[in-house]
Design brief:
Strand content of chain B: under 5%
Low-confidence stretches of chain B: none
Radius of gyration of chain A: 23 Å
Distance between the termini of chain B: 11 Å
Shape of chain A: flat
Helix content of chain A: over 70%
Shape of chain B: flat
Mean pLDDT of chain A: 86
Number of strands of chain B: 0
Structural class of chain B: mainly alpha
Oligomer: heterodimer
Radius of gyration of chain B: 25 Å
Chain lengths: ~350, ~325
């Protein structure tokens, strides 16, 4: 990866005749991720107090589903207007975020009141609303939170329908698609990037057991149809297939033939990772986030992938389906295979001197 | 600064670069990882996954407590693993990533050995003693390892043993013990983690190379900052009395953090955490005075607006510092 400065980058593109004129001025500088996290958490706290204000001052809104839905829609509309009209104002953007999140909660409150007897429907409607809000609302942090909520609602909706385990595969497909197509969908980057982060966070939540992941098991209601019975392995297979597709696409992008030494090594390593992930749930998601994150040169995603790897280990310890003896043998075997594969790659594909300190 | 990849995508989105020319532009500027970058990344991944999975596998194995295996075989196995990792570390050298990975695995295996001692001889020791002994035993390796992640692991072990120690302690004091015990525990955590952070930052300033990695220092600053924020909120919301130690220490911490991370070290990450901390403490303070006795709609609205105002102002301030650092 290059570490060219902005000026050098422009110069190189100009020399190749791909851009013309002077380097464009820096437009509305983007805040680092941790500043956005700070704004997101603060916006969320602010929205809770705004919701408290509505509850204390206009109690009828919280007591009536239709009133909550109407108020939620109006407040969300107001947030949309604020985002649109004051894109350059930090203050109004933050007001829009807090107001928008409060409106979103009112909408959800209304739907939960309206369909309280039908869990499947309530999560299904929540998924649609959240996905729509993630698409429509022109704010990065709002979109991350809305797409995270949409992905989790989809999981809950599928679980309440007795389809356990498939949603992680569906989310993984969405995650890979959004990030791997960022060049082709560049004009939609303002939507795709935050949605991609939301999906990454939901993958982290889902099977790696981080946050409050384990209770999802308890809400499972078993289904009797084909999809319900086969969903757990279908979800796993979908994650592993998407991992393989990502690797093949990356090899093609680097113009590495699948039957070349590097191609065979990459496919063999992916095969090993797929086999291990089949028996060790959570590992596939962690690897997917790591590989996609590195492919798009995104440090935050790589960090999330490492977090997912750590969460996988801690969650795996408490997994009830297999004994600690089986889990220990799998981990020892997998670890040994990783080290052996590393040694073989070093022997088979000698380093060309680039990248990182020398190692035996 | 944006990564070259992100910068090119942004220029394309702004219309300075034709969308059709994007793949060529990325290629030309080497903005995407090259095969050699990938090779290095996968090499690191396999090394660390391999070492940690193997060591974790050994820990899982002893946690299973396999009855059919004799105690001598168990001790032999874990000691053999420790010997192999230490030998590998010695052979490969601590300057290489593989030497560091072997040392890290050896440190994990020491925990398995201590757990096995407790399991076999039923020493009656409390769990905190296991972690405290583990932390004490690996100190020489942490020192010679010269490796930030290993030092963080050691700090984590000390924190865990402190937590387990205090979980035993309140039993002697009933309900009051639980209340005071938690506050004492938070103070102990804060003092320990902040001391480590200060020493680490001083060492980094003195250009001790292996202690200069910002990510591990940021983890420590999150620990220290979160704890003092909890203590300040605790003091504000405490129903017994308004303790002065929490708010005073909080103000001192905030001032020192501002001076150090704004002017000396210049780390926007810690400053962003500080802004969030101020928002949380201010919210707790306003909540106590406006809502605890007579919760009203006006109180909720005032606090909501104050939080929005504070976070927007904080965001603008952080953005201006980021711009200042760029120029």
């Amino acid at each position: 990866m290059t570490s060219l400065s902005r000026q050098a980058l422009w110069q190189r593109l100009q020399d190749a005749g791909l851009v013309q004129g002077d380097i464009p001025a820096v437009e509305g500088s983007e805040s680092p991720w941790y500043v956005r996290v700070m704004l997101g958490v603060a916006g969320w706290i602010g929205s809770l107090f705004l919701l408290g204000f509505v509850g204390a001052g206009f109690a009828f809104v919280m007591e009536n589903a239709v009133a909550a839905l109407v108020a939620g829609a109006l407040v969300s509309g107001g947030a949309y207007a604020l985002f649109n009209r004051h894109q350059d104002s930090d203050f109004f953007t933050q007001v829009g975020l807090a107001v928008g999140l409060a409106g979103q909660m009112m909408l959800l409150f209304g739907f939960f009141e309206l369909f309280e007897d039908n869990e499947r429907l309530v999560y299904g409607v929540t998924f649609v609303i959240e996905a729509l809000l993630a698409f429509v609302m022109p704010n990065f942090i709002y979109r991350v939170l809305a797409s995270l909520a949409a992905a989790l609602s989809l999981s809950f909706a599928m679980h309440s329908a007795g389809i356990y385990g498939l949603s992680s595969g569906v989310i993984a497909v969405g995650f890979a698609l959004v990030w791997m197509q960022d060049v082709r969908w560049v004009r939609f980057n303002e939507i795709c990037r935050p949605v991609g982060y939301g999906l990454a966070l939901s993958l982290l939540y889902y099977k790696t057991g981080i946050f409050w992941g384990r209770w999802i098991w308890w809400s499972r209601s078993a289904g009797k149809n084909w999809l319900s019975i086969n969903a757990p392995w279908l979800g796993k297979a979908l994650i592993l297939m998407i991992l393989l597709v990502v690797v093949v696409v990356l090899l093609k992008r680097m113009r590495i033939a699948l039957n070349s030494r590097s191609g065979i090594a990459a496919l063999a390593a992916t095969g090993l990772a797929m086999a291990a992930s089949w028996v060790a749930p959570g590992l596939g998601q962690a690897l997917l986030i790591l590989i996609v994150g590195f492919a798009v040169s995104n440090r935050v995603l790589v960090g999330l992938g490492l977090l997912a790897s750590g969460a996988f280990l801690s969650n795996y310890y408490y997994l009830m389906q297999t004994t600690l003896l089986e889990k220990s043998l799998l981990l020892i075997g997998l670890g040994a295979l990783c080290l052996l594969a590393r040694l073989l790659v070093r022997l088979w594909l000698p380093p060309d001197g680039a990248g990182g300190p020398a190692d035996a | 600064m944006l990564s070259p990849r992100k910068q090119i995508l942004q220029w394309s989105k702004q219309g300075h670069l034709n969308e059709a020319a994007l793949p060529k532009s990325l290629d030309l500027t080497d903005a995407d990882p090259s095969p050699s970058d990938w090779r290095h990344f996968i090499d690191c991944l396999m090394l660390w996954f391999g070492s940690i999975f193997m060591a974790a596998g050994v820990i899982f194995f002893f946690a299973y407590n396999w009855q059919e295996m004799s105690r001598f075989a168990k001790f032999g196995l874990v000691e053999f693993c420790i010997a192999v990792t230490v030998l590998l570390c010695w052979k490969l050298g601590l300057d290489r990533p593989s030497g560091k990975a072997a040392l890290f695995a050896a440190n994990l295996l020491i925990g398995a050995l201590l757990a096995l001692v407790g399991q076999t001889y039923q020493t009656g020791a409390d769990p905190w003693q296991l972690f405290a002994t583990w932390a004490a035993m690996i100190i020489p390796w942490v020192v010679i390892g010269r490796f930030g992640a290993l030092l963080l692991f050691w700090v984590g072990l000390v924190n865990l043993s402190l937590l387990l120690y205090f979980q035993n302690f309140p039993r002697f004091f009933g309900v009051f013990g639980v209340l005071f015990g938690t506050e004492t525990l938070l103070w102990t955590f804060f003092i320990f983690n902040t001391t480590v952070l200060c020493l680490w930052e001083i060492a980094a300033t003195l250009r001790v190379e292996w202690l200069g990695e910002r990510w591990s220092l940021r983890v420590m600053s999150v620990a220290s900052g979160s704890l003092i924020t909890i203590l300040a909120v605790w003091a504000i919301l405490d129903f017994r009395e308004f303790g002065i130690a929490g708010p005073t220490c909080y103000l001192i911490w905030l001032t020192v953090a501002y001076v150090v991370y704004r002017h000396k070290v210049k780390d926007l990450f810690v400053l962003a955490g500080g802004v969030l901390s101020v928002i949380i403490v201010a919210t707790a303070w306003m909540g106590k005075w406006m809502l605890f006795d007579h919760g009203s709609a006006g109180g909720f609205l005032t606090i909501g607006v104050a939080v929005i105002g504070l976070s927007a102002a904080g965001g603008m301030w952080l953005k201006s510092i980021a711009l200042e650092e760029k120029s």
